[in-house]
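Typical record was shown:
=====
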Amino acid sequence: MKLIAWLRDLIFRIAEIQSRIHKIQEALGRIESRQVYDEHYPALAECEFQTFSQWGEDGFIQALLREISIEREIFVEFGVTNYNESNTRFLLVNNNWSGLVIDGGQDYIDYIKNDSIYWQHNLKAECHFITRDNINEIFRSNGIVGEIGLLSVDIDGNDYWVWEAIDSISPVIVVAEYNAVFGDRHALSVPYRDDFRREEAHYSHLYFGASLKALIKLGKQKGYTFVGTASNGCNAFFVRDDQAEKVLAKFDGPWAYPSLVRESRNEQGALSFVAGGDRGRLIEDLPLIDVETGKDVSLKDFPELFSREWSEGKKVSA
């Protein structure tokens, strides 16, 4: 009985520590957000700061909100795992937005619902494995239709095809993860599969999603202007055409950044730290679609995936 009581006390103390860490993160984020408001930055990437986002996306989003008008302060984010690290948590706690988060893991959704933010804020968490056929119905069933403030797409797989299918909401801002391993010269995506899972598609975990050029192409088709990427080379930001001019007039760019992240795995599942163009060679035989031509291709069909700047780890004007 003493051991059970001790374990309960330990779990309580860990949860209390985590809550305090989150409060410190929120406070630091508010300080950073105020600096973004007070200072003049010529480029969006200079506004970056990290509170709950994986990299500098929290600052990027706050900078965009200074320039554009949001009528419905509602967000949707999918692929959030336990939501401790996400693109919208700071919007929830700092800007007091409402939102819907979706993940395919029930344990993650249960974790979110037991987090204090779930009763402190107007947040809804739903467990779904997202496909292009169910995404609009998920939104409708949760009462989210029409204009919203922000959509964040990060499912490490069918990202291009799911964003293409979305027609029930009209976000002002879209944040979409791109796969920088596919380079910056070509509009490439993994083929659509209902059951696509990154960790099962290839042992390296590098075969997923779409290239930045593919997402920029899709954004134009859907009425969105590309305004830049975070400097880590992970997420691309789009603003709906009716509001994009305000952002383009304020900041230089748009700039696109390559990824220097070395997250590849070996066949045993351990990090292998493959970098640069060697990452593409691990998956060069796997099927892709050139979304500009509709042709089935692979990375082997493109001897030059990267512009000179990207191959040198530098930003490019897009």
